[in-house]
From TrEMBL:
SMART domains with a match to the protein in the record: S1 (SM00316), YqgFc (SM00732)
An annotated GO BP: translation
Residues covered by the S1 motif domain: 697-793
Protein known as: Tex-like protein
Molecular function via GO: mRNA binding; structural constituent of ribosome
Lineage, top ranks: Eukaryota, Metazoa, Ecdysozoa, Nematoda, Chromadorea
SUPFAM superfamilies named in the record: Nucleic acid-binding proteins (SSF50249), Ribonuclease H-like (SSF53098), RuvA domain 2-like (SSF47781), Tex N-terminal region-like (SSF158832)
Matching InterPro entries: HHH_9, NA-bd_OB-fold, Ribos_protein_bS1-like, RNaseH-like_sf, RuvA_2-like, S1_domain, Tex-like_dom_sf, Tex-like_HTH_dom_sf
Pfam families: HHH_3, HHH_9, S1, Tex_N, Tex_YqgF
Length: 793
């Protein structure tokens, strides 16, 4: 039985607050009854997407982000509990005084803070070998210190020459002071003060500041040095000084980045008068030793207390900044993955480049590669580049291949993107081609192009393009426009370019958090189990790479999966796995597919009738509520109405009746009646702007590219992103988008399916999502530094 006196439920309730959906800026603590339900779900192996959709009536409206934080707290609680148990065993073995042992064990068993655990046990740790305190102990001054701490008088002259190193009274006092300093820091009251002073929001009369200074190396940088431009990049932080209570997470991340580049050093500065509040000054010392006590307090403060405060505060600031960075990355990733697909368009992707040329790939509306080409940019006599003479004819020929679909040209945002945008815009303006264009992030495209998956998907690509490098990346750009989530899941999230300072945070923790977000998005959007790729399937709640491969193998051998119930026959999908994944795997009526012929039906081992609910977000465990009971019946509908627009109006009429039945019924009703979701798609353009043509006061349209805690970055189509500072966003409401039916994540985009209400809520607390279309007014323009400040209108 655990000796720790707190539970995981209590830890999560104390550590995690959750978002109130109707009040985005308001957070409250998790009620203990909800936490208990949540812990039980985690213990049972339930994943965040499953809980957020199918157990939301147990979790009080917590968002997926709240659940992610709770899951992390759940894991941390187990680690801290194990650490507390270990220290309790050490206390049993190492503390001789029974009364003191019980006092220490009582404190250790109650605290839920890992740092406080260390502080509580600090007085019972032995001095490090080779330290001043351990040397003093070896010289035999331990007895002196114990008597002094009890308030007794000690004649220090009696110890002169007791050891060769103690040849004078001054040396005896010095060694005594060293050990006394160590003992003063180990006092329980000193450790309590340390914890209080290390709080980021402490309001004691001791001020702590973050301060930066130039490194010695940075002071001697010359204009010709590689790192010289970094001085301008980090100029706001070269002489930074701020109270720790008011420093922002992004500022800490910037300081840490500048430190890693050897531009600045940053540290925590503690008030000089901190020694005046040291608990050691309140000890009852013999009046003849008061001066020795004061020296020991000063020494203990300088060598132990201040460095301890600096380490703890620095760690807390970095932890808070890391949490902020990961949350920001997770939010941006979710919005990117939930970008609306551009359906019923052909896409011509261009991967711009100077040296290796501009690689082109034409794909149809299903993402199938039709043709590839390459053109080059040539340097002009004056500064700049322009397409060669063949470029116009190449793009005109590619565009002519598309007859029955509108064409969008997707231009990568890497080097030479500006030249290509200007060139394409000129072709559109001169009506050489009939199309619109958009700018697509190339982040991760080169990573994907070097993978085995890329070679398998595009085995017949032009060898010239393959030898030019990044041979698959530009095809990936086109598919990102047509079916974003299916393409983005092929790339590790950290390579997608939607995080700030991601290299300054713990890589393992970042990967774990982002993986949860990807699973949330893929699961909540849902996948067509009969055509989804391995990359999509393995990201579904409850599935992994092995079970996803088993699904693909099974559907190939059997001719297709005919119902969700049939999933139970697949190797690796047991009861728990089925519970977690079934509601996110959509099964459409394969009997109506041309490939499902009589021979396949005859060979099928199971003759399972198709259930239209298998093509909805309703979980099989709730089919009885949806069908056998009266949700559909009461609405005057039946299973044949599934997937038809008229069903939603029919269900809306019975909302009050459903709510009277209880929360489980409400969940099923919402999954049936709220299938619509519409996220922001690419901004389609026909022309480009020049930065030199802009002026303060201009109103422009743009698209949100990235979030940060200090604002949002907006692409205005001029080659450089503008910044809307967070202080200007508080009263601005984003544009609303008309809901429409979306296609299942399948890679082919052939069938209409339903996506439930909670996806719409996943980003409801943020004023603007990635790819939001916004209008802005320019408030600041710096042509030399290529910086633009805007406010939203």
């Amino acid at each position: 039985m655990s000796s720790v006196r707190w539970t995981i439920d209590e830890f999560i309730a104390a550590e995690v607050s959750f978002q109130v959906l109707c009040k985005p800026d308001f957070k409250v603590r998790f009620p203990i009854n909800i936490v208990r339900s949540l812990v039980q779900l985690f213990e049972d192996g339930c994943e965040v997407p499953f809980i957020a959709r199918y157990r939301r009536y147990l979790i009080g409206g917590a968002t997926p982000d709240d659940l992610r934080h709770a899951l992390e707290a759940f894991k941390n609680a187990k680690v801290i509990k194990a650490k507390a148990e270990k220290l309790l065993r050490r206390a049993d073995a190492e503390i001789a005084d029974d009364l003191l042992k019980e006092v220490v064990k009582d404190a250790l068993s109650k605290t839920m803070d890992a740092g406080e655990l260390e502080s509580l046990f600090e007085p019972f740790k032995k001095a490090k070998k080779g330290s001043l305190a351990s040397r003093a102990m070896e010289l035999g001054v331990g007895e002196i210190c114990q008597k002094l701490l009890r308030g007794e008088y000690v004649n220090l002259e009696l110890f002169i020459n007791s050891k060769p190193e103690l040849s004078t009274l001054a040396k005896v006092e010095e060694e005594t002071m060293h050990l006394l300093s160590h003992e003063l820091h180990r006092l329980e009251k000193t450790q309590i003060l340390l914890e209080k002073l290390s709080e980021l929001n402490n309001y004691l009369n001791i001020h702590l500041k973050v301060k930066s200074t130039l490194t010695r190396k940075a002071k001697f940088l010359k204009e010709t040095d590689k790192n010289f431009p970094l001085l301008d990049h980090f100029k706001l932080y070269l002489n930074f000084e701020k109270d720790i209570r008011f420093v922002q997470p992004f500022q800490i991340l910037a300081l840490e980045r500048a430190s890693s580049k050897e531009i600045i050093n940053w540290k925590i500065v503690v008030d000089d008068n901190i020694a005046s509040v040291h608990p050691g000054l309140k000890l009852s010392f013999h009046f003849k030793h008061v001066n020795l006590l004061k020296k020991a307090v000063q020494d203990s403060t300088k060598r132990f207390l201040i460095p301890s405060i600096e380490r703890k505060v620095r760690k807390k600031l970095l932890d808070r900044a890391e949490n902020s960075a990961i949350d920001c990355f997770a939010k941006n990733l979710r919005e990117l993955l939930l970008t609306a697909p551009l359906k019923n368009y052909a896409v011509l992707a261009i991967d711009p480049g100077y040296k290796n040329g501009c690689k082109c790939a034409l794909v149809n509306d299903n993402g199938d590669l039709l043709q590839t080409a390459i053109f080059y940019l040539k340097p002009l006599d004056i500064k700049g580049w322009a397409p060669d003479t063949r470029a116009e004819e190449i793009l005109k020929t590619l565009a002519s291949k598309i007859i029955d679909l509108p064409l969008v040209i997707a231009i990568g945002n890497s080097s030479a993107t500006r030249e290509v945008q200007v060139f394409v815009a000129s072709l559109i303006q001169r009506r050489v081609i009939v199309a619109k264009f958009c700018v697509v992030s190339e982040c991760g495209a080169s990573i994907y192009s070097a993978t085995k998956l890329a070679a398998e998907e595009l085995p017949k690509i032009d060898i010239k393009l393959r030898s030019a490098g990044d041979f698959s990346g530009f095809v990936s750009l086109a598919r990102r426009v047509i079916d974003p989530i299916s393409e983005y899941v092929k790339i590790a999230p950290k390579h997608l370019g939607v995080g700030l300072y991601q290299h300054s945070v713990n890589e393992k923790r970042l990967d774990e958090m982002l993986d949860i977000v990807v699973r949330e998005c893929v699961s909540n959007v849902g996948v067509d189990v009969n055509i989804a790729s391995l990359q999509l399937l393995q990201r579904v709640s409850g599935l992994n790479k092995n079970t996803a491969a088993n699904i693909i193998r099974y559907r190939q051998n059997s001719g297709g999966i005919k119902s969700r119930e049939e999933l139970k026959n697949i190797k690796g999908i047991g009861p728990k796995c089925f519970e977690q994944c079934a509601g996110f795997l959509y099964v459409y009526n394969v009997n109506n597919n041309e490939g499902w012929d009589a021979l396949v039906r005859k060979k099928a081992k199971l003759a399972i009738d198709y259930n239209p609910l298998d093509a909805t977000p309703v979980h099989p465990e709730s089919y009885k509520i949806a069908k056998q009971y009266w949700i559909l019946e009461c609405a005057g509908a039946d299973l044949t109405h599934i997937g038809q627009n008229c069903l939603f109006q029919m269900l809306a009429v019975i909302e009050e009746q459903i709510r009277e039945q209880g929360p489980e019924w409400v969940v099923v009703w919402e999954l049936l009646s709220n299938p619509f979701v519409r996220k922001n798609g690419p901004m389609l353009l026909t022309n480009v702007l020049e930065m030199k043509s802009l002026k303060v006061g201009d109103v422009l349209e743009g698209i949100v590219r990235n979030h940060a805690s200090f604002g949002i970055f907006i692409d205005l189509g001029i080659g450089y992103d503008a910044l809307a500072h967070s202080s200007t966003l508080l009263s601005v409401v984003p544009q609303e988008h008309t809901p429409s039916l979306e296609d299942p994540v399948s890679g082919s985009g052939a069938t209409v399916h339903h996506i439930n209400k909670e996806i719409r809520n996943m980003t409801s607390s943020y004023p603007f999502n990635i790819n939001s279309h916004v209008k802005v007014r320019i408030t600041e323009l710096d042509l030399n530094r290529r910086r633009i400040g805007v406010v939203l209108v």
